[in-house]
Amino acid sequence: MARPSAYLQTSKHSVFYFRIRVPDTVRQLIPQTYLRRSLQTKCRRQAIVRSALILDQVQSLFSQAEGGKGVDVSVLSWKRSERPLNQSQTPVQAAPAVPEKSSPKLSTVLQQYLKAQRLDGVGEKTLGDKKSIVELLIRIVGDLPIHRYQRQQAQKFKETALQLPPRVNQKGKVPLEQLIADAETTISTTTFNNYVKYLTAFFGYAVQEEYCEKNPFDGMKVKQRVKASEGRCRFTEDDLKRLFAADVYARRDGDKPYQYWLPLLGLYTGARMNELCQLYLDDVVTINGIDCIYFREGRDDQKLKTPTSERVVPIHSKLKEAGFLQYVEQRRELGEDGMLFDLVRHKRHGYAATPSKWFARYRDKLGFKGGDEKKDFHSFRHTVADHLKQLGVAESLIGGILGHQTGGITFSRYGKDFKPEVLVSVVELITF
Questions:
Q1: Could you confirm whether domain 106-221 is CATH 2.60.40.1180?
Q2: pLDDT tens, position by position, for the chain (432 residues)?
Q3: Where in the chain is the domain with CATH 1.10.150.130?
Q4: Residues 94, 103, 220: CA angle, nearest 5 degrees
Q5: Cα end-to-end distance, the chain, whole Å
């Protein structure tokens, strides 16, 4: 007989079937033209394996029929049947189990996934986050052949992860049981849903590459009965007074200019910290007579979150009054390696690694940590968005400043980026 794959067919729903013609010599004992069985899979690799199991049984039944023995074709199945055979039947020897090497372990698929993601241009920080979550799954469930991850394993991950403290992968090799016992707080629902998002994407890749049939993490997210806008809090007027009344603003920029300028730039541009930290001096540009900051991927070490994050934002008059343009000119005159700030690039966190830790300590010192309010550097972005929203500014204009895609196909496909002269009046509405 031919190879097992020669007997495969698919239904209109893409489910594979095993189908074989009954030889004329045994048609009296098997009064059917064809034998057909559903393989209950859309994965070709799995279908071939199951087809081989049935083919082995078919060969045995045909041999029995040619010898004049009665046969029961209803026992044909790729599953191991527990139904006893008729006495007239010769027991069919079960095909040997498929070796585990036919389905690679999760850790092996992870390496292939990360390689594919790099080719797609995914940044190192995001890759690191994805890798750490898949490794957490391995810690909880084990490094199994990937086809063995079913809903049961996903449920076990969910039950365990929701009991873990934040930043569990930064706690070394402490046993998970001990981390759970010692945890004063556990990860938030938002954090867990981010875990699920990464795992869903990972297993989506595995299904696409036919390593497994189903995505065990589909629909695993925990529903939240809160608005997305409540995930992180904006800064109030009193918060801003405390932030900008600190010593660093009394002595101007001091030895570390980024500590002076980053919060101000965050407040008057709404930009992400990494977007600001990776700026070069030639990203401060003049377009149509308007001083602007050009957020772009102009160099290999500049990464934006999405393609729509590339934008030109006019420089607020308050930043000019604070001496930002003079600072830029001083840097240019010194010939400092072209960057706006003296920062060391971290492989995973980019240029924002050191400033991010500094601002976290700065925030904690001012008492913004704790309670139900989540305030960090990203809160500047929420502050700008909410401030302009309350003034009735169109969503598309706010998106033009923050680098968000808004609207339908008319704006996203046919519309061009806003010109600086359109955005300058909107930027000047940011007043505190």
A1: no
A2: 567 788 888 887 788 888 888 888 888 788 888 888 888 888 888 888 888 888 888 888 888 888 777 777 777 877 754 333 343 444 444 444 444 446 799 999 999 999 999 888 888 888 888 999 999 999 999 999 999 999 999 999 999 998 888 887 777 778 888 888 888 888 888 889 999 999 999 999 999 888 888 899 998 888 765 555 455 588 888 889 888 887 666 655 556 899 999 999 999 999 999 999 999 999 999 999 999 999 999 888 898 888 888 999 999 999 999 999 999 999 988 875 689 999 988 877 789 989 999 998 888 888 776 544 678 899 999 999 999 999 999 998 999 999 876 554 444 444 457 889 999 999 999 998
A3: 106-221
A4: 110
A5: 81
User: Which conformational region is residue 325 in: left (phi greater than 0), alpha (psi within -120 to 50 degrees), or beta?
Assistant: alpha
The number of beta carbons lying within 10 Å of the beta carbon of residue 5 is 11
Structure tokens at 415: 């519309």
* CATH assignment, 237-427: 1.10.443.10
Read off φ and ψ for residue 324, nearest 5 degrees.
-65, -45
Tokens linked to 400: 């033009």
CA distance 88 to 265: 85
Count the alpha carbons within 13 Å of 400 in the hemisphere toward its beta carbon: 23
